[in-house]
């Protein structure tokens, strides 16, 4: 197969100053994309500001022979999100893909998290993805082409303690991905998401919590983390941002050298003309059985894209 290239294309990557976003930006640039490295340079909980991370990655790309500009406005404010898109248009004359990667983390038990903590999580993850995409959308529609790559997390599926604010925000991004993919299809816009598994500032701050959850030592957690460099997540972002990708409304779990589809399925369940609570209780194994259950679909997808 020929190498997937992005020559002549322009891409925005948010949260690109460090970790997973930096890896996305570097790989896309290495494949010929002109990249807007967007990063506010905030702390893990969303506070603070630094132009350094975005400037450093943009300079790194240029030093490697690529094209990149830095932008350090917030994804969570409508006017600032629009500046990110305008930066691409002013610098490169076009915009072909948006990779929404900006995120924060502030874990705590459910009863200790404040309402403002939940709101800022939604502001950055959900509204950040929404606002940057909204700013790019009219340009994609006019071009009859566009790629949106959102970032979700397995935390949205549960199973992680002290992550109700983060997991809920990522669930909102998942819903945005699925619903927007339907609207974008007729315009040639594909909207997908990736769920990364990587060692980042975010996961590094949760070593003790993960050790307790998994009943292993913090040292063992660090050994696992060492197998999860952010660079191993970048191939999914690059594929989903490529013009050849016809997937839409999908989520790819990526990291540690593996990639797999995360899907919502609809089980056969049971059917009764006059269904009662007792019917559900008595037939719960059948209700819960997902053997052979098909994925719940979104927009049409080319069978060629999945080898059908």
Please tell me about this protein's structure.
The structure is a single chain. With 308 residues, the protein is of the alpha/beta class. The protein has helices at residues 19-30, 52-63, 78-92, 115-143, 164-184, 201-204, 207-214, 218-225, 234-240, 277-282, 284-288, and strands at residues 10-14, 34-38, 67-71, 97-100, 146-151, 189-196, 251-255, 258-262. An eight-stranded mixed sheet has the order 3-2-1-4-5-6-7-8, sandwiched between helices. Strand 5, helix 5 and strand 6 form a beta-alpha-beta unit. The chain is globular, with a radius of gyration of 20 Å. The mean pLDDT is 93.
Helical segment count: 11
Helices and strands: which structural class? Answer: alpha/beta
Global Rg: 20 Å
Strand order of the largest sheet: 3-2-1-4-5-6-7-8
**Can you tell me the residue ranges where pLDDT is under 50 for at least 5 consecutive residues?**
none
Our estimate of the beta-strand percent is 5-15%
User: What value does the average pLDDT take?
Assistant: 93
Query: What is the share of helical residues?
Result: 40-55%
Largest sheet: 8 strands, mixed
Give helix and strand order, one letter per element, not per position. EHEHEHEHEHEHHHHEEHH
Care to count the β-strands?
8
Shape: globular
Gap from first CA to last CA: 18 Å
Which structural traits does this protein have?
alpha/beta; 8 strands; globular
In short:
With 308 residues, the chain is α/β, with parallel strands linked by helices.
What is the topology?
Layout: E1 10-14, H1 19-30, E2 34-38, H2 52-63, E3 67-71, H3 78-92, E4 97-100, H4 115-143, E5 146-151, H5 164-184, E6 189-196, H6 201-204, H7 207-214, H8 218-225, H9 234-240, E7 251-255, E8 258-262, H10 277-282, H11 284-288
Parallel strand pairs: 1-2, 1-4, 2-3, 4-5, 5-6, 6-7
Antiparallel strand pairs: 7-8
């Amino acid at each position: 197969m020929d190498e997937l290239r992005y020559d002549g294309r322009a891409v925005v990557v948010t949260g690109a100053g460090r970790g997973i976003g930096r890896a996305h930006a570097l790989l896309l640039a290495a494949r010929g994309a002109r990249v807007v490295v967007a990063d506010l340079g905030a702390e893990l909980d969303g506070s603070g500001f630094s132009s350094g991370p975005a400037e450093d990655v943009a300079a790194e790309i240029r030093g490697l022979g690529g094209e990149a500009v830095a932008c350090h406005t917030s994804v969570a404010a409508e006017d600032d999100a629009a500046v990110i898109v305008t930066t691409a248009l002013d610098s490169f004359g076009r915009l072909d893909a948006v990779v929404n990667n900006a995120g924060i983390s502030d874990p705590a038990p459910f009863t200790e998290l404040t309402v403002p903590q939940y709101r800022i999580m939604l502001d950055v993850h959900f509204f950040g993805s929404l606002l940057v995409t909204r700013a790019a959308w009219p340009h994609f529609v006019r071009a009859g082409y566009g790629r949106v790559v959102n970032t979700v997390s397995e935390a949205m599926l549960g199973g992680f303690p002290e992550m109700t604010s983060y997991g809920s925000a990522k669930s909102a991004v998942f819903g945005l991905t699925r619903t927007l993919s339907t609207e974008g299809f007729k315009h040639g816009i594909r909207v997908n998401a990736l769920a990364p598994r990587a060692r980042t500032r975010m996961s590094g701050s949760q070593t003790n919590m993960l050790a307790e959850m998994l009943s292993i030592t913090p040292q063992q957690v660090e050994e696992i983390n060492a197998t999860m460099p952010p660079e191993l997540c970048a191939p999914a972002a690059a594929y989903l941002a490529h013009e050849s990708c016809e997937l839409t409304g999908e989520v790819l779990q990526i990291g540690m050298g593996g990639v797999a589809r995360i899907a919502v399925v609809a089980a056969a369940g049971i059917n009764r003309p006059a269904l009662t609570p007792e019917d559900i209780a008595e037939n719960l194994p059948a209700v819960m059985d997902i053997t052979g259950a098909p994925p719940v679909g979104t927009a049409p997808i080319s069978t060629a894209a999945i080898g059908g």
